[in-house]
Request: fold
Amino acid sequence: MRWHYKHFISSKTRKAIVNIIVCLKQILDPEVPARDFRVDHDRREAVRGSANLVTNIFCENALETALQLKERSGGRITALIFGPEEAEDSLRKALAMKADEAVLVVNDGVAHPDPLAVAQALAAAVRRIGAYDLVLVGRESGDWGMGQTGGLLAEELGLPCVSFVDAIEAGGSGLLLKRQTDNGWERVDAKPPMVATITNNEFNVPRIPKTRDIMMSSRQPIAKWTLDELGVDAAAIRAGGGYSRVVELAIPEKEVTCEFVSGDTLEQKVDQLAQRIMEIARAL
Amino acid sequence: MSDVVICLFSNAGYDRAAQGLVGAGRRLADALGARLQAVVLGPQNPELSIRAASIADAVVAADQPGLAEYQPEPCLAVLTQICRELAPRAVLLSNDTYSQELAPRLAHRLGGSAAGDGVELAVENGALRVKRSVYGGKAIATIELLRTPAVVWLRARAFEVAEGARPASIATVRGSSLSVPAETPTRIIERKSEATGEARLEDAAIIVSGGRGLGGPEPFKDLQEVAGLLGGQTAASRAACDSGWCPPSWQVGQTGKKVAPGLYLAVAIRGASQHMAGISDAKNIAAINIDADAPIFKHCRFGIVEDYKKVVPLLKERLAAMQK
Ligand SMILES: Cc1cc2nc3c(=O)[nH]c(=O)nc-3n(C[C@H](O)[C@H](O)[C@H](O)COP(=O)(O)OP(=O)(O)OC[C@H]3O[C@@H](n4cnc5c(N)ncnc54)[C@H](O)[C@@H]3O)c2cc1C
Ligand SMILES: Nc1ncnc2c1ncn2[C@@H]1O[C@H](COP(=O)(O)O)[C@@H](O)[C@H]1O
Reply:
């Protein structure tokens, strides 16, 4: 059961240099269990507590997709974050995974600007980075999960966009992409430059960086740009933007008590389980 | 600037998502004292258009040859043109692949604001507010859209349908009134379905779902048999999909299918919040898990703490016997 990925990525991919910018977001560790999760109602933000900050998983899927494409086709990969100084850690990890360059657009404004403000900051940075064929973002972030940055970024840059992509190779009019749909997949022929949002599959699980590369990454340079030098409306972005705002953040109440099936033997327990399942099935 | 527009795809038909979307649009339009305009993209689908027209105030069917099958850039261009003409206050879409792909870009082109995965809509002081789950389902946020139009994609299947018996008024726009870009930088060149059965996972009444605890692809065959005995379908957690044990389209969760079955039986699934975010509309959740402390049990009506390897074969036997 391997479906079409292997087949999709043919071994005789045409040599074509593809320069890629991968946008990464650093987020509160999404693995924090629900019982430890708190929100600050006034600030309408999650309470960090003792949780780690990590790179959003779909951004790492995007970087992995970019690295595999580069390994086959050549090109350079630039990792880009719009975030606070501490987001440098995510860029170091990207360098350790073997991104070539890293750019941090320093966010010295509100912690969670709206999706358009983020897209405007990223678009300005992408333009300044210059020569690129492909801009990759995650399908959505694990914190606010707006799922909009890719589309808005494409519009800011005046580029086409394909969403939910899980494999890319050089070919066709430039790039051939495979993307997931509600009940299967589609193959897309694309002429770069373009934006793609990346989703997960079994082949873009992010690689674990080598210890040597982690050590090397701590010495690699990271370009730091301020909003003021990017020619954007820095004040508006710092204030969070004028696109949308969060007016309430709450933890949903949910109380269900689980009834564990009982019985002396496994057979008795499974018998009860089967009965309860059948009751529901018959009532439907 | 007062209409509410809903965007439907003719190829998808008048499914539960379309019905929920029409219902949500009708109620929002009524709350705003606005007209409801249903835009149908793609080849003529009389059933869909007539059903929508019985609830909406008007239906605009865009069936240009260039829209016969979904293509991102042409569909976006046409939807933008139609919306510019109608100058709506709000545009509502469903949460299928295509709608999610179009919505933020459409909002940008119209100078509006988008929000997605909405489970509730409200109007507050004239502004549209969208409730949606955030932080992997651990919190729920209300987002206010600051620009017009508000472009919102909804978990449409979870919205109530509307009854309607209005006289149908269907306008077809085609020919020179719309320009469909012919040469586009991206083009879908192949489409494949990996659907398991007739029904869509989203519409399944019973779902038997497997997680990483299954340890490999083979046990999914047993789950399919159990599902078959119940007339249900099979799904999976992200961890199982990422392991390559089943196709990505089986994934349920925040970034997978949002399902609403009468029964969701989770086998060897831990119950991470991101997984639960896909089954918040399930009426009953049950689990088979070896770990009594697995978070999944916090959401379950009933469950069994046991190794699935022991439970599933017996369960299959019992269910088969009960069918007789
Ligand atoms: C941004 C983001 C989005 C995500 N979106 C999704 C999503 O859409 N869908 C999704 O599913 N996940 C999603 N995830 C991943 C999610 O956080 C979890 O990692 C994932 O759901 C875990 O899958 P699992 O429960 O199958 O595996 P595990 O967490 O490994 O759990 C396996 C379970 O199996 C049980 N088990 C083991 N052996 C046996 C046995 N022999 N018999 C019975 N039980 C056994 C264990 O007790 C355990 O509870 C997302 C994560 C992020 C960060
Ligand atoms: N501040 C940011 N800096 C860099 N990339 C970002 C930022 N915010 C969002 N992205 C990208 O956009 C994707 C989707 O995020 P979102 O639209 O917020 O759900 C992420 O996976 C990132 O690739």
Summary: The radius of gyration of chain A is 22 Å. The helical segments of chain A are 5-8, 57-73, 88-96, 115-129, 149-157, 211-217, 234-238, 266-283. Residues 266-283 of chain A form the longest helix (18 residues).
